[in-house]
Amino acid sequence: MRGRRAPSIIDVAREAGVSAQTVSRVANGMDIVRPATRDKVLAAMGRLGYRPNSAARALKTGRFRTIGVVMSGLSSFGNMRTLEAIANESAKSGYSLALSPLWTIARAGFSGAFVRIAEQAVDGVLVVLEAHEIRASDLVPLAGIPTVVVTAGDAHPFPTIDIDQAQGARLATEHLLELGHRTVWHIRGPEDSFSGHDRAESWAATLRAHGRVVPPLLHGDWSPASGHAAGRRLADDPAVTAVFAANDEMALGAIRALHDAGRDVPGSVSVVGFDDMEISAQFQPPLTTIHQPFDRVGTTAVGMLVDQIEGRDSRTPGPVTTTLVVRASTAPPCPPSGQSRAGSMPGFECGSD
């Protein structure tokens, strides 16, 4: 007995009472179909057991409707938020994702990720980089494939979108100086991090621009544990009144170390983070931080890539700006002994827990 013929797009159109073009639009994930009509088409597909033939569609259109993503630091807060935005925007544009995470920043692993992506027949690639160890020459295997890079570095020929790391660090540092602190200590990110480097450079430049002493850097690795280790060192120095940590997790560790050492935040030391994680408002005290619009970066990156894939003009935007979010972890420095600080709570002893 001959096998049952697989349902076609015409069968689905007849079952749903719509045109074949409408079924095609729904199958391709296009968002120009009314929700009620889309639901009707999807229900018809389900009843008939229809599955879109992506291979046939690729032969007909020359596109696979798939975006490749090569990403380092998959577990980091910023990259996960960016990836979420990329996935949402890709789906809205009718594209699926093929993810090739980099478990190592070694150049061999980076080149291997490109090979894996090329094997998956993608229409374009988004590269989300974090480390300085990646060279421009490592991107050569992607020549001829539409590519957009999400990174703080620019030593490559591809369109780039990123958050203005220097602007964010300047906002954090100037906020503490404007409160009256004489200088600001900094817990920076890893040595090989684009963003960690740019934030540290901007912090130092901002202090110099205001004629302030630039204290020695303390090095972290983005983790709360590294922030705690740095905070323990800072807690022993009574001259430390203001700290800018290069991310919220290190700020959290530093705050705990300061509290453990009897240094009140913000009574004795003010602390600013960077990222604006959802839980930052729930720290004790709630954390003053720099908000990074990861969703905007991911959405913009997909738009830039889809424009390239579909032959539209694509303009590279400038860096995405950050916003200072002021909460309770920062305050003016303590006045000389015996004086009260303006705006302090009744019964509050400046500089103690």
From TrEMBL:
Pfam families: LacI (PF00356), Peripla_BP_3 (PF13377)
Region (Disordered): 328-353
Domain of life: Bacteria
Signal peptide: none
SMART domains, per the entry: HTH_LACI
Cited SUPFAM superfamilies: lambda repressor-like DNA-binding domains, Periplasmic binding protein-like I
GO MF: DNA binding
InterPro entries: HTH_LacI (IPR000843), LacI/GalR-like_sensor (IPR046335), Lambda_DNA-bd_dom_sf (IPR010982), Peripla_BP_I (IPR028082)
Domain HTH lacI-type: 7-61
Listed PROSITE patterns: HTH_LACI_2
Keyword terms: DNA-binding, Transcription, Transcription regulation
Name this protein carries in UniProt: LacI family DNA-binding transcriptional regulator
